[in-house]
Amino acid sequence: MDYNYTIKKNKRSKNLRIKIKSKNNILVTIPYYISYKQGEIFLKEKEPWILKHLSNIKENPLKFKPYTESKKEAKDLIIKKLNFFNEKYNFKFNKVFIRNQSTIWGSCSSNKNLNFNYKILFLKDSLQDYLIVHELCHLQEMNHSKKFYSLIEKTIPNYKSLQKELKKYLIN
Length: 172
Ligand SMILES: [Zn+2]
Description:
The chain contains six helices and six strands; from the N terminus they run βββαααβββααα. It has helices at about 35-45, 45-55, 65-90, 125-140, 145-155, 160-165, and strands at about 5-10, 15-20, 25-30, 95-100, 105-110, 115. It has a three-stranded mixed beta sheet, with helices on one face. The protein has a three-stranded mixed beta sheet with strand order 4-6-5, with helices on one face. The longest helix has 23 residues, at about 65-90.
């Protein structure tokens, strides 16, 4: 099996460390006094462990098209859904931003701007609805309290199973 790796020196590290993020993203951190050559030897020693982990990495089941191609379509969809669900809630929000993010689906700022990840476009409809209602309800409740989830439940009664399903698509 092939894999790509990067060896980086870190002034603060005292040990050699390997971090596997994906097949193309294996990071070896070495203390500054260790040579890159020694870093490579260390990596080779750990190869059986690396290969075992690589074979367990699951591919993200979603395929994303590039951001520039999809941004407008994502924004149209999200605005349409926001307006649809806000008929029920009647919350006030300011601007809606579409962003290309790697670890979050959306957020809500204290000045009532809503941010959404364009990758929402590639999720199935019910998951899109959940993420939109989630941020919408943060306009009222800036937390993940019981009150917050009871707001969500008004329009998405099965939100718990959707939350679970979303975990499969955690982007990294
Ligand atoms: Zn939240």
